[in-house]
Amino acid sequence: MSAVTSAPWSRLRLRQSAHLRDLCAETTFTVAHLIQPVFVVEGLGAAEPITGLDGNSRLGLDDALATIARDLDAGVRHFLLFAVPSPSGAASAFGVFTASVVAAIKARFAERLCLWVDVCLCSSTPDGHCAIADGRGRIDLPSTLAALADVAVRAAEAGADGVSPSDMMDGRTAWLRQALDDRGHGMVPIMSYSTKFASQFYGPFREAAASAPRHGDRKHYQIDVRSRTDAIASSVRCAVEGADLLMVKPGLTALDLIGPIRDATQRLVGAYQVSGEYASLCALGRAGLTNFDAALLETWHVFRRAGAAYIITYGARRALALGVSA
After folding, report:
1. Cα–Cα distance between 69 and 37 in angstroms, integer?
2. d(CA 236, CA 268)
3. Does 196 qualify as catalytic in the annotation?
4. What is the DSSP string of 212-281?
5. Are 210 and 125 in contact (CB under 8 A)?
6. Catalytic option among 78, 249, 267, 318
7. How far apart are CA 77 and CA 226, in angstroms?
8. DSSP secondary structure of 16-34
9. Digits of tens for pLDDT over the chain (326 positions)?
10. Which of 88, 134, 265, 303 could bridge to 239 as Cys pair (CB 3.0-4.6 Å)?
């Protein structure tokens, strides 16, 4: 029998036990590769479960601190903070509220966690868009970039370990890098939402962050899902402008881009398993159509197989229970 004809039997032999499968696994990860989003809502009393995102809620500050404590006990080390200001508050106060939440979290947990802060204006603008509009309803880019820089600098001054711009405004990474450097925060890294598509998979998040657009959509500043060239170029621009980590969003629908972006930029590229993707798994599990835990773990392995250096997922707090190594 030739080596070629015996190869299928060799593959079967190496699949016969968990020990052999683990030995030959080409991808693996630990809890340290996972980032857990947390939504802190100004003035919120009782926690509010987020529709579709089982195990995730909108939280007031006290509940958020208690939740983070439990998450740390469950092995989570990285958190992505979404600070959601009061609807009655002024947009200019968004950075102040964000900084107050960061300060409270870091005062309680210090170096036990790595706290990334999402930097976007969508929860604070009157129209729910990610930019400040001028008198004619168009994006006022200078004002928007200045506001984003203010949030990033305030977060850094409050103790944030990193900032993560998600707005998709042109030039925002360079603007934030310069602002952070000028204020003495040159060692604060930027994890950029560098390739972010105008997707249908953001619904539960928009409820959680109170950030649904009041009119139109975001297709004039987020990337068209049909555009591979623009998607890669967007990450290249972010890398050139000073981003330390890059990201594709949604994760599952951008698996084909992780490797090319990494190769084009020589930066580590992560994947955001967005709210609609996670909620889809939850819905299948509730309907008895899949084993939710097994399906969730499967998607994480797929992200890693595609080359994702890290994964933002609403299920990071479940990782240890699923057998992921600490």
Report:
1. 14
2. 12
3. yes
4. --SSS-STTTSBPTT-HHHHHHHHHHHHHHT-SEEEEESSGGGHHHHHHHHHHH-SEEEEE--HHHHHHH
5. no
6. 249
7. 35
8. SSHHHHHHH-S---BGGGE
9. 444 455 566 678 678 888 778 878 878 889 999 999 999 999 999 999 999 999 999 999 999 999 999 999 999 999 999 999 987 556 568 999 999 999 999 999 999 999 999 999 988 887 778 888 887 878 899 999 999 999 999 999 999 999 999 998 999 999 999 999 999 999 999 999 999 999 999 999 999 988 888 887 888 889 999 999 999 999 999 999 999 999 999 999 999 999 999 999 999 999 999 999 999 999 999 999 999 999 999 999 999 999 999 999 999 999 999 999 98
10. 265
Closest CA to 297 of 115, 59, 34: 34
Q: Verify cis geometry, omega within 30 degrees of 0, for the bond prior to 49.
A: no
Please give the angle made by the CA atoms of 85, 136 and 168, to the nearest 5 degrees: 50
Residue 249 is among the residues annotated as catalytic for this protein: yes
- Give the containing element (helix H, strand E) for 80: strand 78-84
User: How far is CA 98 from each of CA 79, 85, 110, 116, 281, rounded to the nearest angstrom?
Assistant: 14, 8, 17, 12, 31
Token pair of 194 as six digits: 């560098």
3-class SS string, 182-220:
HCCCCCCCEECCCEEECCCCCHHHHHHCCCCCCCCCCCC
Has this prediction a pTM greater than 0.90? yes
- Is the distance from CB of 246 to CB of 265 less than 8 angstroms? yes
Catalytic residue among 129, 196, 267, 317: 196
The pair of structure tokens assigned to 66 is: 């208690």
- Identify the structural domains of the chain with CATH numbers, from first to last: 29-322 (3.20.20.70)
